[in-house]
Amino acid sequence: MSLFSRNKIIKVPGEVENNNAEIFLDTCSSVNLITKSALKKFQINKPCIGTITETFLQAFSNNNSNSSIYELSIKIGDLTFSEYFRLVDKDDIFDILIGVDSLKRNRFVINLVDDTLYFMDLSNNPIKLTNLCYDINIYNNGNDNNQTEVNDDKEQ
């Protein structure tokens, strides 16, 4: 899992097991995660389908983890799919996170230019699912929407 600020990660509205949720999309994570508190909040009572032990490589540390695995139904826009999620204790940043493997497998395209999540159909036509939600303003340090030009020419 990558290092991030809660307000600077890409999020989309969606559903987890028919419960409204804010779903984090993390292109630096190779796994899907759900927190213990999210299982309670969404009243998900289904049993785990197994466990897995693996080493997570993070920016500043490595961590061995034994995780319970849950198969969950996810809905984003008009697309519903099932994915496997590892259960994690840490719940101060997100409830549910979808990693890059699932993003690719489900043919998602994150367009940061128009702030949209698309699904690519089998003919490679983009279908808009939803708008991205995050708090990043690239212009003028977030003060307004006027773009500031940068002149890279050397003085002569």
UniProtKB/TrEMBL annotation:
BP term (GO), one: proteolysis
InterPro entries linked to this entry: Peptidase_aspartic_DDI1-type (IPR019103), Peptidase_aspartic_dom_sf (IPR021109)
Gene3D superfamilies listed in its UniProt record: Acid Proteases
GO molecular function, one term: aspartic-type endopeptidase activity
Top-rank lineage group of the source organism: Eukaryota
Aspartic peptidase DDI1-type domain ranges (all copies): 4-111
Protein known as: Aspartic peptidase DDI1-type domain-containing protein
